[in-house]
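Recall that a protein's primary structure is simply its ordered list of amino acids. Everything else, from secondary elements to tertiary packing, is in principle encoded there. The following example makes that idea concrete.
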Amino acid sequence: MKIIYSWGHPDRTIKPFLETEVREWINAGYDIMPVRDREELGITMPWPPQELDRLYRNRDERLLGLYDRVSRLAEIHDIFITNHGNVYHPEFIKSLKDKKIYTVICSGDDPEGSDYCSRPYVHAFDHSFAWAVNFDKDTKMTEKFLQWGARRADWWPYGVWTDGYKPALTEEDIYNQKRDIDLVYVGYPSTKLARIVELKKAFPQMVIYGHGWSLKTCLGSSVAYHMKYGSWSKEAFSASIKSLPLRLWRVKELPVAELVPLYQRCKIGVNMHLSFGPSNLRTYQLPANGVMQLCDCPEGLGQVFKVGEEVVVYHSIEEAIELIKYYLEHDDERKEIAAAGFRRTMQDYNRLTTFSKAIQNVKKGMLQDGIKSFKDGSPIKV
């Protein structure tokens, strides 16, 4: 079984983890040809669908160069996987059928980004995977993929890389080690800013890191939040201005090497999405480091962890504040949940395990399509 794995990511803090995951998969025995698509194209973000279509129609030299290389690789490989943002035009993906290669897309949708990263593309692939659980309150992300024309759809939980936690950490450590940071959030502000402001007001000791923070971004995010939730008014704008003295625009980016040591010092980690999910790296990285995770996305979180045992869920920032107060006062209960979340993550959500399960689903799909063997003649077994 020979796999082409095409990936890219705009976040330079994540790129080293991606390098690690491919290396670990290869060391585990998978025959993988990595294609760093965005590096080859000289871009940091995938093009919007309309721009990708324009470049494809105009025979863009960079794009066709990448497609030509992938097409040649497809002749001797069995599976093509594109992950972390799509740069492949649907017509090109459909042309790969002549190469008798099984095509796979994996998309990290926040629902807000679906029109950008998955909806225009899933119909062209043989198999579609979603990182997220829910698209909205009542609909799974995989159900949406099928509605948008995907031939088959499965969940591929993001998981955690070995670079993203301390391998020597044990459950005993979680119960016994001293953690001197009560509350942490690492991530973008985006439309989450108003919620983060409320947490910071309630817990001045809260530690915040991330990139994309600036005075302009913070003010813009506050305005966007009020407009999105129908609370835009002069009073709301004034409230946004008044929140700025918290000086959250001075939040610093955390160097990659310092993330795991930071999490090892934290008691409670807040996870926050734009709306639905869960779909981000924090979902797995917090418990992998022995941090008790307080997460939103109540509609989908139960598919990932046992709520109340391995993770704590909140439905509003007001509820989150009360839960944080409770677990800071009941440290034994916090440790129990942190240890259970750690145990579940190490068992089910390391990236080698999640990749292996995804490949099993891919092989099932190949068999459903009547593909009985790989190009080297070896039979497909599940």
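The chain has two domains: 2-159+350-368, 162-348. Residues 331-348 form the longest helix (18 residues).
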